[in-house]
Design goal:
By secondary structure, this protein is of the alpha/beta class. The protein is built from 16 helices and 12 strands. Strand 11, helix 10 and strand 12 form a beta-alpha-beta unit. The radius of gyration is 19 Å and the shape is globular. Belongs to the Glu/Leu/Phe/Val dehydrogenases family.
């Protein structure tokens, strides 16, 4: 997947949203609706400027299209960002104003949780909008999508371990987790239960303390650069985008990189550098698809068991991608891209654009 670094991105639609009364500043990016309506979370983050927010939402929406395709979902790729500090700027008025903008797209974009937003926020957005997933369970939603995101990352990690060491067990393997928020802390739980030795870091002391309260055997290091240089078997970036920059890639001593963060590569070509160094890199949009699978299941009347079974298939998808990469002598990221792009291209020949409410295959009644 080529990340977007120029102004022309190939997106179907990019919408800038502003509401003076509530202070809302948001961007919704729809990359592709060839496979279906674009489902992707809303990130609430204090970007330094609009250009940084635009760059992030463009990259994230491309990743969502590839993620849905590779996961076998009949969904397109979209993402949204709200510019601001969620601790200071989030309000009911702002979220409801944002919901009205989503509603105006007529079903071409369906939102969910992401960094800085949670299920209760989706409840408020749903007051103004029919196209919302990830609501609380008492409001008909699936709740926190971090549950199956972490589960899916764990399954991908097991497949990577099998490919590299011949067994999917992580017992005795030393795993470094950068970022122990909603997804990272759940991933730590899976790893500890499987017998892995876990080392963590996070900019939040509270997040670290919460993990240590449940898993006192977990080690802690000062920061991400320190963890990257540590003697690890697996390095798991689970925080924000751009975690794998040139300095981090050159410092890594781990055999595998497999984490939950979106858009981990800070710039194009780093997947090839990792491959040349003999480090197995599991593409992030393949690894972290569990959350998308969870909220997508709401569109069919949510069943956790059904969604979990589908998320477990991330193990098989990862195995398939790694086998193709080995057979064709290409990095795993290139193998994953080919599979995702092939499915999108096939769908695009039949229906290049999802028409939202005018498309007979999706109705508001189904989304409620």
């Amino acid at each position: 997947m080529t990340e977007v670094f120029g102004r022309y991105s190939g997106h179907e639609q990019v919408v800038f949203c502003a509401d003076e009364a509530s202070g809302l500043r948001a961007i919704i990016a729809i990359y592709s609706t060839a496979l279906g309506p674009a489902l992707g979370g809303t990130r609430f983050h204090p970007y330094p400027d609009e250009d940084a927010a635009l760059r992030d939402v463009l990259n994230l929406s491309v990743a969502m299209a590839y993620k849905a395709s590779l996961a076998g979902l009949d969904l397109g790729g979209g993402k949204a960002v709200i510019i601001g500090d969620p601790a200071r700027d989030k309000s009911e008025a702002l979220l409801r104003a944002y919901g009205r903008f989503i509603q105006s797209l007529g079903g071409r974009y369906i939102t969910a949780c992401d960094v800085g937003t949670e299920a209760s926020d989706m409840n408020l957005i749903a007051e103004e909008c029919d196209y919302v997933t990830g609501r609380t369970t008492d409001r008909g939603g699936s709740g926190d999508s971090a549950i199956l995101t972490a589960f899916g990352v764990f399954q991908a990690m097991r497949a990577c371990a099998e490919h590299r060491w011949g067994t999917p067990s992580l017992r005795g393997r030393r795993v470094g987790v950068v970022g122990v928020g909603k997804v990272g802390r759940r991933l730590v739980g899976h790893l500890v239960e499987d017998g892995a030795e876990v080392v963590i870091t996070d900019i939040s002391a509270a997040a670290i303390e919460e993990v240590r309260a449940h898993y006192p055997q977990v080690d802690v290091v000062a920061d991400a650069p320190t963890l990257a240089r540590a003697d690890l078997d697996i390095y798991a970036p689970c925080a924000l985008s751009g975690a794998l920059d040139a300095a981090t890639v050159s410092a890594l001593r781990a055999s595998i990189v497999c984490g939950a963060a979106n858009n981990q590569l800070a710039h194009p070509g780093l997947d090839k550098v990792l491959d040349e160094r003999g480090i197995l890199y599991a593409p992030d949009y393949m690894v972290n698809a569990g959350g998308l699978i969870q909220v997508a299941d709401e569109l069919h009347g949510f069943s956790f068991e059904r969604a979990e079974a589908r998320a477990a298939r991330i193990f098989d998808t990862t195995r398939r991608v790694l086998d193709i990469a080995t057979a064709e002598g290409i990095p795993p990221a290139a193998a994953a891209d080919r599979l995702a792009e092939r499915r999108i291209a096939q769908a695009r020949r039949l229906r290049p654009l999802w028409l939202g409410d005018r498309d007979v295959r999706v109705t508001r009644a189904r989304l409620r």
